[in-house]
């Protein structure tokens, strides 16, 4: 597997090695990737109800996957190939513009259309076009490949602020609250993240806080069994109470990471958004500094609607990171430029398929090269 997370050594920060270490790094205070999440003052009292713990079922296959060796160069190339395939529609629209093109207003107009079609949005498109025209003039670029290379540099510069690692070992336990609309791949993403966390020697506990969608608890339980992870769940009840129980259980057991699944909802469903805020407040009652990460899972096929989701969920919860899934098929990819321009929240992971290895850390250079090759 790739290296997904950043840990803090005792003296100076250093990137996580390619090969997982035998034991987690010593906890240390690190600057958060985004604005810190704080508990709302005077949250309502919630008494946790009896929770049902779904016991994990270990299998030889699961154990083998957890201790798998770091990904080989061939597998890395496979991931990049899948990413290019997923973004091929946007890539073809952009790259064909520069084949034998003259550097004139017609080229800029076609580029503007291609960026808008890719869901980059008006603001990001105008920013990129203005910056590109300025660079062409200042550097006296006259050939289409030179202009394409200049666009690549501008896109990488725009997206690089989104490229930040998910930091481990700064809290014990690290409490992560996972949100997203129905169909974004939220529960599946939680299962994949659990596997990757285990590969970095992190013990994991899952909280089945999605009591709204039918079979959501069962789906999370299946992932728990696959990963040999305990799931805190209830047959029915208050999702905030489930989250509260999970935090206290993790503290008692010395678990490294708690991931709280929440019910998928549209940003326009105000009563459900209020429930999300309640879950966050109640998690803060269970652990004063929690939740430490509030992640939003976004379907890469939703285009500009994804930007709307980011804004609304960020305003309600204070997002610390994003996971963008389903960057294959009809995905356009330009929405990352829109996010970078309007609400530069770190993109921790991107996904192109259903397999564990199809969820990888976001790398701005790799992503832009997939768009322009």
UniProtKB/TrEMBL annotation:
<comment type="similarity">
    <text>Belongs to the GTP-binding SRP family. FtsY subfamily.</text>
</comment>
<feature type="binding site">
    <location>
        <begin position="325"/>
        <end position="328"/>
    </location>
    <ligand>
        <name>GTP</name>
    </ligand>
</feature>
<dbReference type="GO" id="GO:0006614">
    <property type="term" value="P:SRP-dependent cotranslational protein targeting to membrane"/>
</dbReference>
<keyword id="KW-0675">Receptor</keyword>
<dbReference type="GO" id="GO:0005886">
    <property type="term" value="C:plasma membrane"/>
</dbReference>
<keyword id="KW-1003">Cell membrane</keyword>
<protein>
    <recommendedName>
        <fullName>Signal recognition particle receptor FtsY</fullName>
        <ecNumber>3.6.5.4</ecNumber>
    </recommendedName>
</protein>
<dbReference type="InterPro" id="IPR000897">
    <property type="entry name" value="SRP54_GTPase_dom"/>
</dbReference>
<dbReference type="InterPro" id="IPR013822">
    <property type="entry name" value="Signal_recog_particl_SRP54_hlx"/>
</dbReference>
<dbReference type="InterPro" id="IPR036225">
    <property type="entry name" value="SRP/SRP_N"/>
</dbReference>
<dbReference type="GO" id="GO:0005737">
    <property type="term" value="C:cytoplasm"/>
</dbReference>
<dbReference type="GO" id="GO:0005525">
    <property type="term" value="F:GTP binding"/>
</dbReference>
<keyword id="KW-0472">Membrane</keyword>
<dbReference type="Pfam" id="PF02881">
    <property type="entry name" value="SRP54_N"/>
</dbReference>
<comment type="function">
    <text>Involved in targeting and insertion of nascent membrane proteins into the cytoplasmic membrane. Acts as a receptor for the complex formed by the signal recognition particle (SRP) and the ribosome-nascent chain (RNC). Interaction with SRP-RNC leads to the transfer of the RNC complex to the Sec translocase for insertion into the membrane, the hydrolysis of GTP by both Ffh and FtsY, and the dissociation of the SRP-FtsY complex into the individual components.</text>
</comment>
<dbReference type="InterPro" id="IPR003593">
    <property type="entry name" value="AAA+_ATPase"/>
</dbReference>
<keyword id="KW-0342">GTP-binding</keyword>
<dbReference type="InterPro" id="IPR042101">
    <property type="entry name" value="SRP54_N_sf"/>
</dbReference>
<dbReference type="GO" id="GO:0005047">
    <property type="term" value="F:signal recognition particle binding"/>
</dbReference>
<dbReference type="InterPro" id="IPR004390">
    <property type="entry name" value="SR_rcpt_FtsY"/>
</dbReference>
<dbReference type="Pfam" id="PF00448">
    <property type="entry name" value="SRP54"/>
</dbReference>
<feature type="binding site">
    <location>
        <begin position="180"/>
        <end position="187"/>
    </location>
    <ligand>
        <name>GTP</name>
    </ligand>
</feature>
<keyword id="KW-0963">Cytoplasm</keyword>
<keyword id="KW-0547">Nucleotide-binding</keyword>
<comment type="subunit">
    <text>Part of the signal recognition particle protein translocation system, which is composed of SRP and FtsY. SRP is a ribonucleoprotein composed of Ffh and a 4.5S RNA molecule.</text>
</comment>
<feature type="domain" description="SRP54-type proteins GTP-binding">
    <location>
        <begin position="346"/>
        <end position="359"/>
    </location>
</feature>
<keyword id="KW-0378">Hydrolase</keyword>
<dbReference type="GO" id="GO:0003924">
    <property type="term" value="F:GTPase activity"/>
</dbReference>
<dbReference type="InterPro" id="IPR027417">
    <property type="entry name" value="P-loop_NTPase"/>
</dbReference>
<feature type="binding site">
    <location>
        <begin position="261"/>
        <end position="265"/>
    </location>
    <ligand>
        <name>GTP</name>
    </ligand>
</feature>
